[in-house]
Amino acid sequence: MDFSEHISPDLDVDLLVIGWGKGGKTLAAALAATGTRVAMIEQFDTMHGGTCINIGCVPTKTLIHDADQRREDEDPQQFWDRAVARRDTVVGAMREVNHAMLADLETVTLIDGRARFVGERTVEVTGGEDTLSVTARTVVVNTGAAPVRPDLPGVDSARVHDSTSLQHVSPFPARLAIIGAGPIGLEFASMFAGYGAEVTVLNRRERLLPGEDQDVAAEVAAVLQDAGVTVLNTASATAIEDGPSAAAVVADVDGAEHRIEADVVLLATGRRPATEGLGLEAAGIDIDERGAIVVDARLRTSADGVFAIGDVHGGAQQTYLSLDDFRVVLAQLTGDGARTTADRVGVPTTTFLTPPLAAVGLTATEALAEGREILMASQKVATIKAMPRPKAVADPRGLVKIVVDAGTDQILGARLFHVDAQEVINLIALAMRTGTTATQLKNGIWTHPSSTEALNETLGKLAPPTG
User: Fold this and answer.
1) What is the DSSP string of 111-153?
2) At the topology level of CATH, where does 160-269 sit?
3) Is the confidence at residue 4, as pLDDT, over 50?
């Protein structure tokens, strides 16, 4: 963009937002609607609207949905091509809506370029050969996170992808090796297996999902294995070798060297806060050892008038947490400032396997380690008589596990691994936030046939843990 054609080289606004993520765009729109002068800076025009709608939640879940629709006799390449085209259509429409949400507001200035702090609440924006200076009363850093690229020989091979580039991989890989067994790695493993790829996951830990109870992790491992995913535990990649027709991941697997042949390799080794090159030191903004911006419970940085929201300040990387960050900052700017990140109780998560794995609160292992007296109920979905929905849609796999405080009847945590788990977990999270008891959930009246009905039966089986 030629800034000189559109914007004064020295721009002064009330609010400057760097990065078009969920929390930042919502804050910009809310304040601009009241007449506040807002500048929104985004480095890439393909990221208008943020990570979630462009390269994260929405496009990947669109691809996951289509993978679940494929029949075994359908050609993987043709099916993948149609799915990618639909993904792009969905993303394009959402990006257009998100762009209009700010572009249509008179008090918003949209700037495509790279921002770098040059002083207190002042940034220099570079776009091509042009630069401009933006100064604001309040600055919000909302630059998100970027994939971690491990220091491995061969990591720069054209056959190596991250979670963004793999969404447009061509040709479709018959064999996919995934380095990393976190949520991103497992989602892509489940997805690509659904499209017909032979998938191998390298997991550095002794078992899958070490933060989960053993029975939950074992059930997930069994479902992945049934889908054709091979998980290698205690496996650390040491190199990637690029051949004429395929790549090979060289790995130490439980002390022995293995070679995993693959057409494509996915690096799913985590994401780190995107703060590199922002010039934070010029504004007096502190970062921690991982590069995350240090904030307090009201998301204030060490620099006066500067906030950080979303993935850039570390912690759990969830779009809905970025949205709640917006509420916290909005309370500082226009309300009584009472809302803080410490108010969060019962924040759920979902890993979109097939079926989804949803979680909230403590595991049984964690609750016992805290010295709590608990009751616990765990059932495999296939055995739950009062849960017809998974059977009706031909996927009765998974399990339901709920942990309850024995003295108060309050829900301490739940792990739901079944059809519709991403929806039912929200009900349990709400119960945790509002003090709704396990007995009230057990006696609840739920629609039929639904996955929620599992609560009627499973919570009727609460008992002290054995062993």
Assistant:
1) EESEEEEEETTEEEEEETTEEEEEEEEEEEE---EEE-----T
2) FAD/NAD(P)-binding domain (3.50.50)
3) no
